[in-house]
Design a protein that fits this description.
With about 200 residues, the chain is an alpha+beta fold. Strands 1, 2, 3 and 4 form a 4-stranded mixed beta sheet that branches. Strand 3 and strand 4 form a beta hairpin. Helix 3 packs across helix 4 and helix 5 runs parallel beside helix 7. It is elongated and about 105 Å long. The model has no long low-confidence stretch (mean pLDDT about 85).
Length: about 200
């Protein structure tokens, strides 16, 4: 600031006057700063805000156990996680098995050809950069559907719920502040003597 103001002087006398004026302004500023500091009082800093956990899933818990930073990115910052080829297969298989479950609820058992046709229609919509890996996963998908039907023929129960969402408080004593464990049940079958919870795994 001083360089800018002093550069405007057109004579030695004007330069000296500007210097005196600028020195007075500096002293006034320092004096004012002293008064402000004298009036100030200690104020303890507030603790950093705590992240309030809302709904957490088994995947969230696993992410925290594996890498707390991964949990922070996923749950606190809500950064989208990239979907890999294996996740793509799992998503397609779950969709096909949900449709199969709907057929079973209606009293119809789908054939392997029907399941494979549904799988292929869904699989073509996905993108996997490596053609060889995509083909290997496609064949694995066929194998998973074949195994599903083989196990289904051995089952006596029938599905009564598909993709059932659940939520419950982990610490009810905290009231509305309690985090909730949430998830989705792939299938619930009615069997002799009760119910059976089924969780599909494509890995």
């Amino acid at each position: 600031v001083w360089r800018k103001r002093s550069g405007a002087a057109k004579s030695e006398e004007e330069f000296a006057a500007l210097r005196t004026e600028f020195a007075v302004l500096i002293e006034a500023g320092i004096d004012g700063l002293r008064k402000e500091i004298a009036k100030d009082a200690y104020c303890p800093s507030e603790p950093p805000p705590r992240y309030k956990v809302g709904d957490i899933s088994y995947t969230d818990i696993t992410a925290f156990q594996d890498c707390p930073l991964k949990f922070y990115f996923r749950k606190v910052l809500s950064l989208p996680a990239p979907s890999g080829p294996q996740q793509s297969l799992g998503s397609v298989i779950h969709g096909v098995l949900e449709e199969a479950g709907q057929a079973l609820k209606a009293g119809k058992t789908p054939s392997l050809d029907e399941l494979v046709a549904t799988f292929e229609a869904r699989w073509r919509k996905g993108f996997i950069g490596d053609p060889d890996r995509k083909e290997r996963l496609r064949l694995r998908g066929h194998d998973l559907l074949s195994r599903f039907l083989a196990m289904q023929t051995e089952r006596s129960g029938a599905p009564i719920e598909l993709e059932r969402i659940f939520k419950f408080k982990i610490a009810p004593e905290l009231g509305e502040q309690s985090p909730r464990l949430s998830g989705r049940i792939d299938r619930i079958d009615k069997v002799d003597g009760g119910l059976e919870v089924i969780d599909y795994k494509s890995g």
